[in-house]
Automatic annotation (TrEMBL):
InterPro entries: GAUT, Glyco_trans_8, Nucleotide-diphossugar_trans. Belongs to the glycosyltransferase 8 family. It is an enzyme of class 2 (transferase). Its main location: Golgi. It is a single-pass type II membrane protein. This is Hexosyltransferase. It is found in: Golgi apparatus membrane.
Length: 537
């Protein structure tokens, strides 16, 4: 760029070099009047030129680049100063719109057969560079890679759910060891076989001035936590009587534990199902059929993948179906609660507990609750916000496409929880709850389990209809085996916390932040616990 003054000083021309032949073109010419120019005027003119020169330089650069970009200088300037300001569409925006159009087209077409997919994004970029892919081919590659990734993630999720189901259904090595060692102790140690409770305390087993708890389980460690937490949390532990019911194979080990580790001052009775005269085939024919029916056993113990249409199943639905196929649901121990009036004919009120709970508060006020003529005092599970536990209605448990279910039940009826229930046995004995329970179990067996899938709660929801009295939710907090994000403050305030769900606190899949509420009641100094390597986590 050069400044050229005419010989007469009547004009000043700004010259710009061209990009092709090295010549000059007139970029700007300033004419000066013919009269004599004063120094003052010349000074002002030079001052103005000094101000204009930077802009002239920018404009010259744009003109130089014009030959390269094949666009007008105003277009080039517009792209740099803002396409919206000058009303032009940016090339990048145009490119994005074109790519959106290609993606929409590719989304409606079939992915070409034999399309070889790269294993990583870096490999995709490398192949694009080497093979000069067009936008359409790239879009197909991108779609195919994302769909493959989605399939892989889905398969991994189902595999995770299956592994978690197997982990939840299995017996940990340490707990199995504990049962075996205690069973062996029962056969070799007279102290482990001593009568529970001692003969002078036997009358208290039917004394209704005491607080009677019933616990049905084959898990010795879990039973010890329930009993220990109840005794330590009670204001009057000397008024507690525990009736622990277990199966025949676990009886010796369970008896050994409580004989060698008394829960004083509470009283503990341990009985096996084989020791109840009332539990005969004639009195529990339906449950006998449930345990022995080959189709039922295959359903609960067989391959859970065979016959499952995973393509149309969400991981959450699959998880629910797996939980419904837990073998515990065909165990007599899990159905025993429906026979409490017959098993304890002299008792008036009992609190029935699941083995995956922890008691954190004195429960004696439960015996003072007026059930207003109802049988079952329970926490309702339809008035919460979480989807897994506290927003359950009958429609969550029953198949309302079945004509019998649709005819007799209301899908929006509120469900309630097992796990911590106060039962009025005197009122119960005046009802037909047990008969109703049996009749609906029979109907579900006849329908090949198409009326409901999930264990003992659905038939109980039907049998206890009209016999449930809601109690305050603070008595029984559920979901600690489902929800990793359980509110710790709410856990601390609850009277009973319930690890219902797959993530039991004694399993490795249990939630780390919730496990201490359970492990605090495990006696890790006990020789049997230490020798079986049940270590505090």
């Amino acid at each position: 760029m050069q400044l050229h003054f005419s010989p007469s000083m009547r004009s000043i021309t700004i010259l710009s070099s061209t990009s092709n032949n090295g010549g000059f073109i007139d970029l700007m010419k300033i004419k000066v009047a013919a009269r004599h120019i004063s120094y003052r005027t010349l000074f002002h003119t030079i001052l103005i030129l000094a101000f204009l020169l930077p802009f002239v330089f920018i404009l010259t650069a744009l003109v130089t680049l014009e030959g390269v970009n094949k666009c007008s200088s105003f277009d080039c300037l517009g792209r740099r100063l803002g396409p919206r300001l000058l009303g032009r569409v940016d090339d990048s925006e145009r490119l994005v719109k074109d790519f959106y159009k290609i993606l929409n087209q590719v989304n409606t077409e079939e992915i070409p057969n034999g399309l070889k997919l790269p294993d990583s994004f870096s490999q995709l970029v490398s192949e694009m560079k080497n093979n000069q892919y067009d936008a359409r081919t790239f879009a197909f590659m991108l779609r195919a890679m994302i769909e493959k990734l989605e399939r892989d993630i889905r398969e991994s999720k189902f595999s995770e759910l299956m592994n978690k189901h197997f982990a939840a259904s299995s017996i940990p090595k340490g707990i199995h060891c504990l049962s075996l060692r205690l069973t062996d102790e029962y056969s070799s140690n007279a102290h482990a076989r001593r009568q529970l409770p001692s003969p002078e305390l036997l009358p208290l087993l039917s004394d209704n001035s005491y607080h009677h708890f019933v616990l049905s389980t084959d898990n010795i460690l879990a039973a010890s936590v329930v009993v220990t937490s109840a005794v330590q949390s009670s204001l009057k532990p000397e008024k507690i009587v525990f009736h622990v019911i277990t199966d025949k194979k676990t009886y010796a080990g369970m008896h050994s534990w409580f004989a060698l580790n008394p829960a004083s001052p509470a009283i503990v009775e341990v009985k096996g199902v084989h020791q109840f005269d009332w539990l005969t085939r004639e009195n529990v024919p339906v449950l006998e059929a449930v345990e022995n029916h080959n189709g039922i056993r295959n359903y609960y113990h067989g391959n859970h993948i065979v016959g499952a249409n995973l393509t149309d199943t969400t991981p959450r639905t699959f998880a629910s179906k797996l939980q419904a196929r837990s073998p515990k649901y065909i165990s007599l121990l899990n159905h025993l609660r429906i026979y409490l009036p017959e098993l304890f004919p002299h008792l008036h009120k009992v609190v029935f507990l699941d083995d995956d709970i922890v008691i954190q508060r004195d429960l004696s006020p439960l015996w003072e609750i007026d059930l207003v003529g109802k049988v079952n005092g329970a926490v309702e599970t339809c008035k919460g916000e979480d989807e897994w536990v506290m927003s359950k209605h009958f429609k969550n448990y029953f198949n309302f496409s079945h004509p019998l279910i649709a005819k007799h039940l209301d899908p929006d009826e509120c469900a309630w929880a097992y796990g911590m229930n106060i039962f009025d046995l005197r009122t119960w004995r005046k009802t037909n709850i047990r008969e109703t329970y049996h009749s609906w179990l029979k109907e579900n067996l006849k329908s090949n389990l198409t009326m409901w899938k999930l264990g003992t709660l659905p038939p109980a929801l039907i049998a206890f209809r009209g016999h449930v009295h809601p109690i305050d939710p603070s008595w029984h907090m559920l979901g600690l085996g489902y929800q990793n994000k359980t509110n710790i403050e709410s856990v601390n305030k609850a009277a009973v916390i319930h690890y219902n769900g797959q993530s039991k606190p004694w399993l490795q899949i249990g939630f780390e932040q919730l496990r201490p509420f359970w492990t605090k009641y495990v006696n890790y100094s006990n020789d049997f616990v230490r020798n079986c390597h049940i270590l505090e986590s």
